[in-house]
Amino acid sequence: MSIVYDQEQKTITLHTKNTTYQMQVDRYGFLLHLYYGKTAEGCMDFLLTYYDRGFSGNPYDAGTDKTYSMDSLPQEFPSLGTGDYRTPACIIKNTDRTYCSDFRYVSHNIKDGKYVLEGLPAVYASDEEAQTLEVMLEDRVTGVRAVLLYGVLPEYDVITRSVRIINASSGHISVKKLAPACLDMVGGDYDFITFYGRHAMERNCQRLPIGHGVSKIGSLRGSSSHQYNPAVIMAEHEATEDAGGCYAMAFVYSGGFQSEAGKDQYYQTRLLMGFSEEQFAYPLNAGEEFQSPEVIMSYSSEGLAKLSQNLHRCMRTHLCRGKYKEVVRPILLNSWEASYFDFTGESLLKLASEAAELGMEMFVLDDGWFGKRDSELRGLGDWKVNEEKLGCTLGELIGKINAMGLKFGIWIEPEMVNEDSDLYREHPDWAFVIPGRRPNRSRHQLVLDFSRKEIVDYIYEQICAVLDQGNVEYIKWDMNRSIADVYSATADSQGRVLHDYVLGLYDFLERLVKRYPNILIEGCSGGGGRFDAGMLYYTPQIWCSDNTDPIDRLEIQYGTSFIYPASCVGSHVSASPNHQTARSTTLKTRAVAAMAGTFGYELNLNELSAEEKEEIRQQIREYKKYAALIQRGLYYRLTNPQTDNQGAWEFVSEDQREALVQVVGIKKHANMTVDYIKVKGLKENTVYRDTESGRLYNSTALREVGIPKPVLNGEYKAYQWHFVQED
Ligand code: GLA
Asked: Which of 62, 89, 549, 648, CA to CA, is 20 to 30 A from 114?
């Protein structure tokens, strides 16, 4: 049993393989948080302390007891109005226009299996793999209820949290703030690890101590954003890759979000993850309910590598779905950096035949194939194949590409519209524009109001009509701007529109996944602008960044790896000099960086020399050898490319018999010193053979001292070792 209720102590304890999470219903019915950490038995309420503290008031129920205050007690779901002045997880505007919610325990139940969230992405598990705890809380005055949901997946050391607000009051209320996950820690000193960035430089890792006051990251962009990722880690100051306590929260949501971390006046830490507060005010009439998305939480007492591995395994096997979840993905050639908008049917076929000849497995036709889309200026919204440009029908093009032995994939951007499009001319009111104002343009495009079902339905039909024209086996779903000018003509409150937009997006994706179970969907938003656990439920891979420079990718993929599995990281070999940075690197370096994800190419193959083509053929053979290990292996970060001389990482098979170590040098000096890369995760004192050189290595020496990185002349050299245990 992973969830245990102790009637005497009134504790509810959630056990995973290596962790314990405990809460308690206290004497006044408040649901207090007692513990989250390494496996622990018994009741942990000795951790609670009661002192008479100035300006920390007392609930009326406490009578004359000045030592009882919600301002200092750790809670599962803190709200505004109970005397807790810290940042709350929930603010509700009641029918009487007050902002007070005093949630007390009513009941709970424990079920086998993992709860399901209607219309929302969520971790899934069988009845044998998971249990669910539901705790019903109620504000006795308004009747508003909060149902806290906990999903426990013991094997994965994962606990998920979601909350449902039920308006059982007699009038209209509005949910103003909602964070489904809250962690109140009574002690400890922590760092807040977050992933910030910008277009083409996403998910840089930042680690700062959590101090007094609230540190907040988030996105007001209507999507999870390039700027901050909706996943955070709270780690003990001393925690490293290999040791120390650390907690993760990953929001399974693709819209605006916020995460707040802060120390209170008594040096206690609170960490929250939930909706962005700005532009959020979700209306609920009497009897209506609001279901939040969930947050995936994990704890590791063995450092950050283990924490990441917990998240990777859970997301890869219990969040990603469909045919391609466990299958090694096809090696693709994407047309974007090969020819951008400038192609004909003939040039595409030339590119495809070269791709087939080199051993690639899929051809992806990127932007520019529909409407009058010859530049960013026009065409979005007109999902009609430009047969004039292709010189044939889409079905014919796909037929020819399939005949070369290649699968065919296509790019779409369903949420967007250009003002210069037939769709916009016909339905100008379908785009987000605030009446009386001029909208913000971005990449010359506006955002369609996906909170309205009729708009989602219309675009869905258009897209299906395209997909039905031939054997499409892959879709790249793009979203190339942030949302602004939020106004929906049919909404009863504008405070619901951004969330309803995300529900519309999920509805579209769900229908697509169901109707085309054999299509692999890759998410994208100007690269990694919507790289989140919510999208992974529909798109088991996401284009990691529009930056294909392998040296910048070291940092981008390093940050990404803290939360997301390599199996979802879209990664391609592109041209040198690189189109984003103008940096020159070898084909080998570009391939080694791209192999740490779902591998592909994105360059004009017709411009390559015969030697380069031969090298690509070899890379493809090599990648196929390692692909299963990369997709399913345990991931270790071996260096920090933000500060070290090189980026280095490793994939180790679960049985520890095989490992792939990949290294890309960053800094280069004359008379270079030797860097030793410490290899992790192998069996103790065991001999491994490098399959390329045949040389034997002792695993303990590899871990304790490391493998010397060869000193070669030239910048940005790449190296790899493929170790297999010697029997
Ligand atoms: C975005 C994507 C690119 C490419 C272009 C096409 O920027 O991230 O990979 O698909 O759109 O317009």
From this structure: 89
> Relative to the CA of 527, which ligand 1 atom is closest?
8
205, 558 in Cβ contact below 8 A?
Answer: yes
For residues 82 and 103, what is the distance between their CA atoms, to the nearest angstrom?
A: 9
pLDDT tens for residues 185-242? 998 899 999 999 999 999 999 999 999 999 999 999 999 999 999 999 999 999 999 9
Closest atom of ligand 1 to CA, residue 476: 10
pLDDT average, residue stretch 447-461: 98
Ligand 1 contact, 366 CB (< 6 A) = yes
Which token pair is 280? 């959020």
Question: Which residues are known catalytic residues?
Answer: 532, 612
**Cα end-to-end span (Å), the chain:** 39
CA dist list (Å): 273 to 20, 154, 161, 230, 257: 20, 22, 10, 8, 7
**Omega within 30 of 0 (cis) for the link into 577:** yes
Predicted confidence (pLDDT) per residue in 268-283, tens digit: 999 999 999 999 999 9
Calculate ∠ Cα 571-229-159, nearest 5°.
105
Mind giving me the DSSP string for 271-304?
EEEEE-STT--EEE-TT-EEE---EEEEEESB-H
Residue pair 650/305 in contact by the 8 Å Cβ criterion: no
CA atoms of 557 and 409, how far apart (whole Å): 24
- The Å distance, Cα 423 to ligand 1 centre, comes to 21
Nearest protein CA to atom 4 of ligand 1, as residue: 336
Using an 8 Å Cβ cutoff, are 412 and 475 in contact? yes
